[in-house]
Specification:
Largest sheet: 12 strands, antiparallel
Helix content: under 10%
Structural class: mainly beta
Distance between the termini: 53 Å
Strand content: over 45%
Shape: elongated
Number of helices: 0
Radius of gyration: 22 Å
């Protein structure tokens, strides 16, 4: 299989007495992911494939690994694209394990690890750790938030997935309605910049 970008993969598939055995190895272009879901708006980069298909026509499974190099991914879930995306996904028995996944995001860095289990009849079960550092993100009700760091866990077996963890905010800007003492609701701009502190017990900015 040869793509327009020059990426070449070799696909083999055989069947004997209802049993399947196949493999997919070589290079691919990350842009193919845009056809899998409307969540992915734009993608580019190199993907290294080493996959095997085992089982029968009624019940088959994929196993192997997928490695992304120098990826670019724009998704509707994020205001900014993921750039310089690197990492490996190992797939076995319907589970995808992330290792060494990291990228540039919104003037900062993001890294992810953990596992996602997929099913044919329901939403995936997720258990992921996500680390953010020095990102400038657009998160309602803020026009922007500048993160110092965030250590998050995404878990659950369906929408809404639970997000827990700790977030350190360096600065934020909101033009939404805020409550002023004795003034009711007012529409105004407010710059949130937590003051630095030397107290070791409170060694993080308060928002």
């Amino acid at each position: 299989i040869r793509g327009d970008s020059g990426a070449t993969s070799r696909l083999s598939l055989a069947s004997s007495e209802g049993r399947l055995r196949g493999s997919l190895r070589g290079d691919a272009d990350l842009s193919a992911i845009a056809f899998l879901s409307p969540l992915f708006q734009q993608a580019s980069g190199k993907v290294l494939l080493d996959m095997e298909l085992l089982g029968s026509f009624q019940s088959s499974s994929l196993a192997g690994r997928v490695e992304v190099r120098d990826g670019y991914l724009r998704t509707s879930a994020l205001d900014s694209p993921l750039e310089n995306l690197q990492g490996r996904v190992t797939i076995r028995s319907g589970r995808a394990a992330l290792s060494g996944v990291h990228a540039d995001l919104a003037q900062g860095r993001v890294a992810a690890s953990g596992e996602v289990e997929f099913f044919t009849n329901r939403l995936p079960v997720a258990d992921l750790s996500i680390h953010l550092d020095e990102n400038r993100l657009k998160i309602y009700p803020f026009q922007f938030i500048k993160l110092r760091s965030a250590r998050l866990r995404v878990s659950g077996d369906g929408f809404p997935y639970e997000i827990s963890g700790a977030v350190s905010v360096e600065q934020g800007l909101s033009r939404e309605k805020i409550s002023g003492a004795g003034q009711g609701l007012a529409l105004q701009s407010s710059l949130y910049s937590p003051p630095p502190t030397g107290d070791l017990a409170l060694d993080f900015p308060k928002f």
